[in-house]
Amino acid sequence: MTRYQHPLAPTPLRVGLLAALLAAPVAAKPPVYATPAETAFVDALMAKMTVEEKLGQLNQPPGVGNNTGPAAMAGNEDQIRRGEIGSYLGTQGAALTCRLQKIAVEESRLGIPLLFGYDVIHGHRTVFPVPLAESSSFDPDEVQHAARVAAVEAAAHGIHWTYAPMVDIARDPRWGRVVEGAGEDPYLGSVLAAARVRGFQGDDLRKPDAVLATAKHFVAYGAAEAGRDYNVADISERTLHEVYLPPFKAAIDAGAQSIMASFNEIAGVPMHAHRPLIQDLLRKEWGWDGLLVSDYTGVMELMPHGVAANREQAGALGLRAGVDVDMVSQIYVKDLPAAVKAGRVPMAEVDASVRRVLNAKYRLGLFDDPYRSCTPDGARERALTLAPEHRAAARRMAQKSMVLLENEGDVLPLSKSVRTLAVIGPLADHRRAMLGNWAVAGREEDAITPLEGLKAALGDKTRLIVAKGADIDSQDTTGFADAVAAAKQADAVVMFLGEHPDMSAEANNRTSLDLPGAQEQLALAVAATGKPVALVLLNGRPLSISRLKGKVPAILEAWFPGVEGGPAIADVLFGDVNPSAKLPVTFPHNVGQVPIYYAHKNTGRPPSEQEKYTSKYLDVPWTPLYAFGHGLSYTTFRYDAPVVSKKTLVPSALQQQVSVRVTNTGKRAGEEVVQLYVRDDVASVTRPVKQLRGFQRVALQPGESKVVTFPLGFDDLAMLDDRMQRVVEPGTFTVFVGGSSDRTREVGFEVADR
Ligand code: GLC
């Protein structure tokens, strides 16, 4: 069988040619490369540095008050004066960062400025919806803008470096950190990784509102066995390359200046000691020369992993693997100077990492302007924090992030002239739930709750009856009576149920995907009143709510929607905004189906209800409760049959166009996320039944239709063959187009074998 390799696929000749090309200016989208001026500056500076000062640049202690991991000794000012700190974790605020910067620049021997790193994951003080919510928007421009707003605020607070975007693909919703990423799909994850990098870094790193982006956690952190955070990831090389690596490559191609290593091992090798993936793949094959930082005490954790007997060995392994910056454990700065002087750790390895730290500071312009965030009275910080346009962006993002899962009988949108509205549930007025778990600098007092949003939208002409009904996570049902009584008195009911924000994110894993506590029973009791009931979910992972299907007519997935979550929920509930988001992650019927994702393999015995001996379950359907890409609207859309521009592609012209007419067949204007999936029908290795290869948001007035066109090229049709070479194999392909991965129309074409 003939295989068509990418025009630039690495072969000996091509690698040689590419190396020659790299000497010349490279076309758009190169990985980060040091310019001659940068190299000369850094060379000259390094020539003056002692071993201790070099290792100091690799040291990143936590700042005072950092709260993103186990407590650890903060880096002190005398260490700055001795040149033993290169950057700080978790220190922010223009006044504090400028004071520390002044010590570094004016009181240390070489005056090398500090980098201030911080977890700005989905907003700084203007907290946006959690990343899984933002990803539900399928709107890269909006996601990029959210990251831009976060960078502007973070930079005003003295931050140079955010540890975001988190780009880990997650296919096990028991894992708490599913909330932090873009869900289960490498294509969507890659598009959004690039958008977030562009947003954080802006168009010029030397601008005072640019922050270094960090693609994390490298790599396959989301493959933690049993969804238990920090657990082993035992995956095939194919899965590593097809599922977990692509978002990192997309982040690097978008110019990401930093990558954070992950806590997990892959097949026996902890990532903080993984030379093949860091030195050989990231550095050599992908040519990336950015800054690789440990995750928290990841270097020190090589000891409990059982690959290092002591701190020096852990440090030596980390440095040799290419972990440039040692966050928190201070091993590089305390345990390696003697090892370097004794020749147990090569100076060349130290120099390689020091160079990358100094490159980063150079690229930010810190050697020219170390006080870029220091306005005398913090005026810039005050002017930009929670600025009205930032809150407006957060509200818009939240509106676009809410997924309408069910809407039987068009219960939604509610009318604002409703006379009596029951507001039920433990999350109706839960301020912290608006922020989610990783809103480090976020403050509860900045958030507007759903109840407050409803009151603002309805004014005083609607009577609200508020009943908590149940706790988030207890079996206490004594509140049910009040909740049911409230529902019976009302014309309509809105319930706010879900998870506590501390039930997802780091180390917050669950073995159940059910609504916690007695919330499901509460929902069923309220629904049994027969009133028009809408359920708003506030949660950080897919939930197994199949027992509510058919009982609760309207279900809106709002995730943790940020400081403007309350108003945005009201905007959607009353129809001021027509929901348009789609699920970036599959919702299972129950946790027993996990892992379950749309891009699954067909197997030799694909599931069939008619055939016993096929791949399915006895107790639940083999299909999900809600599929990847699912999301309803207050209007309806019709897809005509898709058409391709060519029924046969020839090897020299692997370009295809797929067009589909989409019509708004309802009575309201609405936006539809049109999704395109591809299947390689027969190949030299098994292929997923479909893979996302394009999506477009299209706005349509009632009755309006538009033809949406998708280009398909080599990258969309390529696969890794049995030799792990990226090729397009001849044969037939099927294209699926629709409003969800499980509701599509299809068309075929073929790639000729010559
Ligand atoms: C945490 C997280 C990582 C975060 C880092 C610094 O352990 O794993 O995502 O950026 O430490 O807070």
UniProtKB/TrEMBL annotation:
Q: Which residues form the signal peptide?
A: 1-28
GO molecular function term, any single one: hydrolase activity
| Keywords linked to the UniProt accession | Carbohydrate metabolism, Glycosidase, Hydrolase, Signal
> Does the keyword section mention tRNA processing?
no
Spans through the membrane: none
Q: Name one Pfam family in it.
A: Fn3-like
Please report which protein family the annotation says this sequence is part of. Answer: Belongs to the glycosyl hydrolase 3 family.
The name this protein carries in UniProt is: Glycoside hydrolase family 3 C-terminal domain-containing protein
Q: Which residues form a coiled coil?
A: none
What domain of life is recorded for the organism? Answer: Bacteria
Domain Fibronectin type III-like, first and last residues per copy: 672-741
